[in-house]
Amino acid sequence: MIEANPQYRRCYGSSEVLTGDVNYDDILISYDSLKNKYGLEFLFDTVVDVDPQTQVINLKSGDTVSYDRLIVSPGIDFIWDGTEGYSEAVAQGPMPQAWKAGEQTLLLKRQIDVMPEDGTMIIVPPANPYRCPPGPYERASLMAEMFQTRKPRAKILIFDLKDGFAMDQAFMLGWNRLYGYRIPEDKMTGMPDDINQPSEQGMIDWISGSNGGKIVQVNPPDMTVKPSLAMSFMGM
Ligand SMILES: Cc1cc2nc3c(=O)[nH]c(=O)nc-3n(C[C@H](O)[C@H](O)[C@H](O)COP(=O)(O)OP(=O)(O)OC[C@H]3O[C@@H](n4cnc5c(N)ncnc54)[C@H](O)[C@@H]3O)c2cc1C
């Protein structure tokens, strides 16, 4: 196995690091059992090129490795220039992406910890397809649970370019019952009869694509985002 990263931190469970329910080192995965139990050999290096004709892999270190069979599974990456104002440098500073676990998780945790009690956390889920479809909404739910006790006047705004998401009605029902979420009319079909719709939105708000939820620009110095509606929102 040729792996760029000698330490793997798993994404699942990283939201619980943000809430403080688990420690950063709890999401550290060791390669030991793959080595010791299954006899895998590890080479910590980065693949820069694969030549399928000669069946040779070129590594960043300058070494080469030849193969008979090859499985390529590098995961996904970000399209850094997909939103005006966003970049890899911005993600490493004021506006972390925090979907790849590791330093990004810690960066966002530090921001959340010092967020004012009435601060606003903005979550921008990606377009489909992406890994862990319920992930952004699960993260919003866990943050709301934590904010309820530690920052009860905080808000979580989810700006989505989609008009629905994995298990959206189950999430919305839970948000309604726990955090005073007002369920959109087009998501009410099949909901239980005893739903209490609050007159004002509670801690969580989900702005769908049809309602202008697509973020077209971010402004790191002001910590604002501009959705496709003609207004700006300020995050923490
Ligand atoms: C917040 C969040 C919560 C999630 N929760 C769950 C969950 O509860 N359950 C679930 O099943 N899934 C969950 N997921 C999804 C899960 O984490 C991913 O689907 C999974 O990590 C994808 O595995 P992968 O091997 O394709 O990619 P990765 O985990 O990204 O692994 C790719 C590996 O390739 C290496 N690599 C990349 N390029 C190179 C190169 N050029 N040379 C050498 N090595 C390279 C990287 O270092 C990395 O270790 C969650 C994801 C997120 C973001």
The total strand number stands at 13
The CATH architecture term of the largest domain is 3-Layer(bba) Sandwich
Principal-axis shape: elongated
What percent strand?
15-25%
CATH fold call of the largest domain: FAD/NAD(P)-binding domain
In short:
This protein is α/β, with parallel strands linked by helices and 236 residues long.
Overall description:
This protein has six helices and 13 strands. It has 236 residues and is α/β, with parallel strands linked by helices. It has two domains: 65 residues, no CATH class; 155 residues, 3-Layer(bba) Sandwich (FAD/NAD(P)-binding domain), CATH 3.50.50. The strands form five sheets. A three-stranded antiparallel beta sheet has the order 5-6-7, with no helix packed on it. The protein has a three-stranded parallel beta sheet with strand order 8-9-10, covered by helices on one side. Helix 5 runs parallel beside helix 6. It starts with a strand and ends with a strand. Bound molecules: flavin-adenine dinucleotide. The site of flavin-adenine dinucleotide has 18 residues, from strand 1 and helix 1.
